[in-house]
Amino acid sequence: MNNLQVRCIKMTVILGGGISGLSAAYYALENPRISSMVLLEASNRVGGWICSNKSPNGAIFEQGPRTVRPRGPGGKNTLELIDRLKLTEKLIPIVSSHPAARNRLIYAENKLHLLPNNLKSLFVKNSPFDRPLISILMNDIKAPRISKEDESIYSFVERRLGKDVADNLISPMICGICAGDAKQISVNFLMPSLFEAEQKHGSIAKGLLMNRVNQMFATKTKVIEVSGSGTAEMARKNKWAIWGLKDGLEQLPRTLADNLKSRGLDIRLGNRCERLTFKPGYVELTINGETDKYSRIVSSIAAKNLAQLVRRQHPQLARELEAIPTVTVAVVNIQFSGNVLPMQAFGFLVPPKENLPILGVIFDSCVFPHETDTVLTVMMGGAWFEKNFGECPSKDEILRVAVESAKKILGIKESPVAHKVTILRDCIPQHVVGHKQRLNRIHNYISAHGLPLALCGSSYQGVGLNDVILSAKHAVSDIS
Ligand SMILES: Cc1cc2nc3c(=O)[nH]c(=O)nc-3n(C[C@H](O)[C@H](O)[C@H](O)COP(=O)(O)OP(=O)(O)OC[C@H]3O[C@@H](n4cnc5c(N)ncnc54)[C@H](O)[C@@H]3O)c2cc1C
């Protein structure tokens, strides 16, 4: 073994330079048990699905994520990272009274419906539901408890709140969260508090009430916990609903990469790992036909991709990893001259039962105004990509469908002045029924076989940016 090989064998390797791989490297630099490290990224850029482009007239066209929630442990953690990276001044907060936070629309039965956003909606009929919210609550209180390990979000909501809520609210919401089919996504994973509410207390309403009571008693401790944490605390006090970054979200991975490089991290672009082989005391990576040895690996790549790397040596692990499916999303950014929108809102979602070829439209220029122009993003495909567009649709066809749908639904007469079409293959993992149990089996396998492998990224603990950054923090803090 030569000197270089001996040095590498003491090194940790991080696989993937998306936001979770970069975050893993950032937190690993704080772990004294990790002495040296390298990050390998297959493509020629960092950021993964986070990609902010500029239109010819200067509007930001986000290809992937654009807004982040400030709430919860994950939201607070991301804002702490923003503070540490000195990106605070770039933040664009959207407070809860802003139209982009209050107004969320559903397009059903040929019209746009504003989702209930005030107390009055408890007692009056709210289209697209033909009953007031209070009647939906009564549904839940009366519905019997059924003990289950897991089920789809659709069937849970249909059972407890009614088919109209499952079809017109939850199904489009799941399209908005993960471009997925609510009939496949796990309720125990995505909405564990609602699921546990039924399992422990017999109904969602009773369970949430009990949680609220418990929280009231725990308030004192919570205030102490969050006070003094900079922007996260400011976001809580000022009731931020979401936030974005001036000039686009891609600044986050870029700044993170610059920070890591300035602290000596070796980020190797164009390094696609082709195989992983675990040997006693080290792991061997095959990259561009050459092999390197490392003491341990933190994988931030999609589970499906990791499955291919380990299949030969660990077929059972590969089977579990590849059972976490992904969906493809077509993203079409369009810009119109002037304000062409019927109202200020975050955007609208389309329930799958409408059988339309789009998942929804985000009104980017309401969230982050760009001069007087209107900027929209049409999301298409997801769980229905192949059904709606076949295996290999042309970008022209995708653009035609996106522009026609947006113009028809929003009553726009003008033609776009700029556009960008991107097809993001296998971009969002789907946490389908049984996901929690699958994660347990994966972790049990890794520990039973003593593999020096830690996992993070959107395949495991959630697809939001907050989830993946937190998953990276946990993955490296667990390394001893
Ligand atoms: C269209 C879209 C909209 C979204 N909107 C939001 C939003 O508004 N808010 C929000 O919170 N979240 C949103 N998300 C989710 C969020 O963007 C992702 O979950 C997150 O960016 C995933 O980051 P990651 O680092 O885990 O994975 P990735 O971004 O996939 O990064 C993985 C990296 O690993 C590299 N790689 C893969 N295989 C190998 C290999 N063999 N060797 C070396 N490198 C490899 C890839 O090139 C990639 O750079 C959205 C996602 C999409 C697709």
From TrEMBL:
It catalyses: protoporphyrinogen IX + 3 O2 = protoporphyrin IX + 3 H2O2. One of its GO terms (biological process) is protoporphyrinogen IX biosynthetic process. Pfam families: Amino_oxidase. It is found in: Mitochondrion inner membrane. It is an enzyme of class 1 (oxidoreductase). Pathway: Porphyrin-containing compound metabolism; protoporphyrin-IX biosynthesis; protoporphyrin-IX from protoporphyrinogen-IX: step 1/1. The chain crosses the membrane at residues 12-29. Gene3D superfamilies: FAD/NAD(P)-binding domain. It comes from the Eukaryota. Its main location: mitochondrion. Its cofactor is FAD. Keywords: FAD, Flavoprotein, Heme biosynthesis, Membrane, Oxidoreductase, Porphyrin biosynthesis, Transmembrane, Transmembrane helix. Binds 1 FAD per subunit. Its EC number is 1.3.3.4. Residues 19-479 form the Amine oxidase domain. One of its GO terms (molecular function) is oxygen-dependent protoporphyrinogen oxidase activity. One of its GO terms (cellular component) is mitochondrial inner membrane. Belongs to the protoporphyrinogen/coproporphyrinogen oxidase family. Protoporphyrinogen oxidase subfamily. Catalyzes the 6-electron oxidation of protoporphyrinogen-IX to form protoporphyrin-IX. This is Protoporphyrinogen oxidase. The gene is LOC107264530.
